[in-house]
Amino acid sequence: MQTSLHFFLFFITLWVSIIIPAVQSQCIKDEQLSLLQFKKSLVFNHSTKLVSWNASTDCCSWVGVTCSRNGRVLVLDISSEQISAGIDSSSSLFQLHFLQSLNLADNQLGASIPTAIGKLLNLRLVVLDLSSDYEYLKLGSPNLHRLVHNFTELRELYLDAVQISEQGNEWCRAISSSLPNLRVLSMSACDLSGPFHESLAKLQSLSVIRLKWNYISAPVPGFFADFSNLTVLDLFGCSLHGTFPKDIFQLPSLLRIDLSTNGQLKGSLPQFPNNGSLQYLDLSGTKFSGLLPNSIGNLKMLSTISIQDCNFNGPVPKSMTNLTQLVYLRMANNKLEGSVPSFSMAKNAINIDISYNGLTGTIDSTHWRNLTKLSRLSLSSNKLDGDVPASLFSLPLLCDLDLSSNQFSGPVPEILNVSSYLLNGPDLELDLSSNNLEGPLPMSIFSLRGLKTLNLSSNNLSGSFPLDDLHQLRNQSNLQTLDLSDTQINGKVPNWIWSFSNLRYLDLSCNSLDSLEFHSINLTNLYYLDLHSNRFHGQIPIFEPPCNVHYLDFSKNYYSSIIPSTIGDVFLNVEFLLLSSNNLNGIIPESLCNPQSLKILDLSNNSLSGTVPRCLSMLVVLNVRRNNLTYVDEFSENCGLETLDISGNQIQGQFLKSLVNCTQLEILNLGNNLITEQFPCFLRKTSTLRVLILRSNKFYGRIACQKTNGTWPVLQIIDLAHNNFSGEVPAGTTLTTWQAMRTRR
Length: 745
Known about the structure:
- This protein is mainly β.
- The protein has a domain at about 605-745: Alpha-Beta Horseshoe (Leucine-rich repeat, LRR (right-handed beta-alpha superhelix)), CATH 3.80.10.
- It is globular, with a radius of gyration of 34 Å.
- Mean pLDDT is about 85; it is low at about 1-25 and about 130-135.
- It is a single-pass membrane protein.
């Protein structure tokens, strides 16, 4: 019976364990009839193979059909025929009893796996896969055992993305009891769970184990090291835990191992044998730790090392210079120390990332001389020093260079002898930020016409110059990220900077800019705009819609206007709006309640007056400290505030009890106001409160609450100074129950 499922691919490929010769033979009549009936049952819009099938020609000559010497149909390939609808168990397809290879890939077959597949007793390999729509293909049989129990000669089983949904003891036993000669086990994204059952150990012919994207949630058993023919082990994203058996790494046949994205899996690397066969090693996102063994240099066939986001420490082994086949080296976010070794022998290297470690010393220009295929180099967030080698800019295919957050000194290198690809190629990314680079900013950097990302911020550059003088910057039509913060630029932000249609991130903060041209600005794509800590003055700029800015920072300038009443109508998509430390006056406009995505609003350190609107209680963070506000509307019942700072105003306490609606409050600062109220016991059910500041108000009475056992269990900071509290603090209540103050976090 056909079960219709839309937008998925039913992909069955059946291969024999020996090569099947393509022989033109006289087709057997009943098999030709079965094929024609099968074609008639299919729904397809376009065909390059099925169109050749007709009764007037020998079926062994049809495109996609291969026969044996005696005319039996052995191989059927109707992949990529735009077939839709399903195949049910009564299909004449299952009358082809000698069929050994069936390929229905790249079609849209809406059905479960027909139970009649069990009639094809000559199967040697089964593949069941899905289309790009990632809809689960379901078993037509009641369980995995019923599907495979007749396929005793099966060598390769591919059930990727078939919804099997069985426990470890079920699917392991089903496979081991029915498929004793299995070589390839591929069941990724099958909704399998663990633990691995010991019955799998019977499958001594296993060469490939691919079980990624399942919820195994168990250790990897030691008997995996007994699979002497194992070449591929892929357990990506299986929620594995425990300690990984070291012996598996030492299997002489092992070519590829992927244990990545198993955040609780521990382990360390062994001593690797000479001339090891391993080609691909991915441990990223695990808890693997310890030293990288010097014997890793024995793996001369290794092309990919991915160990980012682990806990490895110690030096990068110098023996890695032996890895001449290396293409991808990803070692970011560990605790590696020492110098950067030479990779000049890795002539095929494309991507090298050793960022976020503790590497020290200089980087020798000769280390990179032969890397003619290198496209990405990231050494950011280390402790590297010395000059930035100008030779890096001569690498012919380099398009992403990140040396940020180190201690490089000396001048920013003049980019003169750059490759033509670097000069004109697309998507060039250059980040030299947060170093100790000195001297003037070389204008030659802006000759890199393919710039996609340019970040030169936070160095010790000298020589103030107007932003408008960067004429070559105008030609960067591909620019998406520009960060020139803290680079001594001054003058105006010219109108032409808004003409970059692809610009998404612009940071010009911490400079001496004093005016902003914004005639006919198109900010449709701009996502992040940071202009804080400059010398802008006058009115807060309001851009013309449509405006898609999500992060907007005008803080620490000299704006002295009111907040425009339309600000919330223009910046409808803003999530972070920072206007603090200006000279803004007037009221807080109600239009700030209009952006549904607004989460953080900082209006602190201004001269605003009037009321804090009720609707702002929908934010996550609201900071209006140090203004002249006199009133706060009551907070709504669906208050979402986690941080509220209204300190340093002239607010009285009429609103106070409505704070009980803010059940997610973590930080509450009411200090330096005119609040006359007793100790706020009405907040005792706000269990998330970590910081409570009441200082310099007119709170009075005892510091106590009745029945306070467990009140504010995570409270760590409280400031009650300069109020009118009186009496003793009763033992066993309030202050004495705040255990979080006694623990280190």
